[in-house]
Automatic annotation (TrEMBL):
Domain of life: Bacteria
Keyword Cell membrane set for record: no
Keyword flag Glycoprotein: no
GO molecular function: acyltransferase activity, transferring groups other than amino-acyl groups
InterPro entries: Acyl_CoA_acyltransferase, Bact_Acetyltransf, GNAT_dom
Protein name (record): GNAT family N-acetyltransferase
Gene3D superfamilies the record matches: 3.40.630.30
PROSITE patterns per record: GNAT
Limits of the N-acetyltransferase domain: 4-150
Pfam families according to UniProt: Acetyltransf_1
UniProt keyword annotations, A-Z: Acyltransferase, Transferase
């Protein structure tokens, strides 16, 4: 079993996190024009990851490689788990679970009672397995095509 080191994300990780987010999204069989439409949303900015983003990295011969990351962000008074991505080569290794549990621990230490996730439909079962409950569906059309996303909540 590979050991991955959990650490706070740094602003200079933005490019690596962006590459990983785009690789993770492209793993699913989405149309190419949808992936292009999501390009900006999958681009992480240094100032965005400065506070509550966390990475898992593994040691390689010449340094380290980020294999997964997630973050906590606030929108309109609610805190969300954002950008929970695991390199597809490492799916099933418990890395996503470790990151989400860490983010929820941080949220608890911040005094939060609820954390939300607007999930990709492919990840809904993952979050539910970790204790999230489906709250509602959000309309999120892509390129003029209908799409709904499950919005789940973790009660802390």
């Amino acid at each position: 079993m590979m050991t991955a080191i959990l650490r706070q994300a740094q602003q200079n990780d933005a490019d690596a996190l962006t590459r990983l987010a785009k690789k993770g999204k492209a793993h699913w069989p989405y149309p190419t024009h949808w992936l292009a439409a999501w390009d900006e949303a999958l681009t992480l900015r240094p100032e965005q990851i400065a506070a509550n983003y966390f990475v898992l990295e593994r040691q390689v011969d010449v340094g380290s490689e980020i294999i997964a990351f997630t973050g906590l962000e606030t929108f309109e008074g609610r805190w969300y788990i954002e950008h929970c991505w695991v390199d597809p080569a490492y799916h099933g290794g418990g890395h996503g679970k470790r990151l989400v549990q860490h983010a929820l621990m941080v949220a608890t230490s911040m005094g939060l009672k609820v954390v939300w996730v607007e999930s990709d439909p492919n990840a809904q079962a993952f979050y539910e397995k970790l204790g999230a409950v489906l709250d509602h569906w959000a309309d999120r059309p892509v390129c003029g095509e209908a799409r709904q996303l499950p919005v789940l909540r973790f009660q802390l």
